[in-house]
Amino acid sequence: MQSDVPLGCQLSGGIDSSLVTTHARSNFNADLETFSVVFDDPVFSEEPWINEAAKVANAKSHLYTFTDSFFFETLSDASWHLDQPLNHPNSLGIWLLARESRKHVTVLLSGEGADEVFGGYTRFYYASMRPKISPWLPLLSGLPVLGKRIERQFGGDAINSFIGASQWMRPELLNQLSPDSTFAPALEKRRALFAEGQGNHLGNCLKYDMQTYMVDLLVRQDKMTMAHSVENRVPFLDRNLVQFARNLPDNCLVSDSIAMRDTRMRGSKVLLKQLAKRSFGDKFVYRKKSGFSLPLVKYYQDRRFKILMEDVLLPGMARRGLVDAGVVRNWWEKMVPANPGTNETFWIPIALELWAQRFIDPPRTQF
């Protein structure tokens, strides 16, 4: 909270940024303003939760609408500032928020790091549940409909299962996209990193995510905000707070109980959600995790994207040879709107080609 320049809060409407906002406001008596990105489509917009959090914190709220036009106009510049392929398309949302909030503040507080430190992802809950579920797998795997899902989630090697839970592309899809590629070297490096953990399985999972998944999130956050000269601060990654969290009993972070309502929502980030209930109701705290998704299918079906694909991206992929352009076209044409996982997988070759055309190709072929 110490700053010689105007300071505000990056408010997504999730419990992490909402806690940062409410506690900064109440404990420091700061005259805070909040900054948020929303969508016209209520399926993707967190606007009701953002409004509730801003109201509880008694903070002035600024809302910026993410539009189709902004998505297409910003792809090139965002790739430039990230210096690598846009690992997640919602980086563009951070770009928009930083650009607009810079008109009011120079420093933003965010809720980044809370999920990794306090066990907020579903994969932590599954890792905690594994010892209880695994002995029953021979029986449970035979259940209709759920059996295969349970087997996939709790079967096999526990470490490989956790590492695979945060990957964006399944091995069989990578083999389609790039037949000469393999996951094996990357998996071995990740297993070696995981093995550095000195705690129990859940503790090692938390440590691993802080060293891998969280790093990408922080790089994205830092580069998208610094593109507009905004400093982003992450209170949940304060050294003393992280040390406190690492010394908590497992059940203060992630539950291993299956006898609860909304198990995945109530079984993760246990302590933070109990804290959030002091300011917000159950509906706010235990709702389905959003993760700030973009309406990608809508963009993929837009006329501007079709032009970009046909005239720029697919020809570039075919010429470059890093991925099979025919496979990318097939994924695009057969895209199922109801399957967001596949749609995000499709983003990977798109982001790679966008980056390559900006950084590798001669200027005359850039989009």
Explain the overall architecture.
The chain is mostly helical and 367 residues long. The protein folds into three domains: 186 residues, HUPs (Rossmann fold, 3-Layer(aba) Sandwich); 87 residues, no CATH class; 70 residues, no CATH class. It is 57% helix and 6% strand. The chain has 21 helices and five strands. A five-stranded parallel beta sheet has the order 3-2-1-4-5, sandwiched between helices. Helix 1 runs parallel beside helix 2, helix 1 packs across helix 16 and helix 3 packs across helix 21. The longest helix has 20 residues. The protein is globular, with a radius of gyration of 21 Å. The model has no long low-confidence stretch (mean pLDDT 90).
Described by strand count, sense and barrel closure, the largest sheet is: 5 strands, parallel
CATH architecture of the largest domain, by name, is 3-Layer(aba) Sandwich
- CATH class type of the largest domain: Alpha Beta
| Number of helices in the DSSP assignment | 21
- How far the N terminus sits from the C terminus, by CA atoms, comes to 41 Å
The CATH superfamily title of the largest domain: HUPs
Question: Which class of secondary structure composition applies to the elements?
Answer: mainly alpha
Strand order of the largest sheet: 3-2-1-4-5
Low-confidence residue ranges: none
Percent of residues in helical segments?
Answer: 55-70%
> What is the fold named in CATH at topology level of the largest domain?
Rossmann fold
How much of the sequence is in beta strands?
5-15%
**Total beta-strand segments:** 5
What is the typical, i.e. mean, pLDDT? 90
Order of helices and strands: EHEHEHHEHHHHHHHHHEHHHHHHHH
Which descriptor suits the 3D outline?
globular
Number of domains: 3
The value of Rg in angstroms is 21 Å
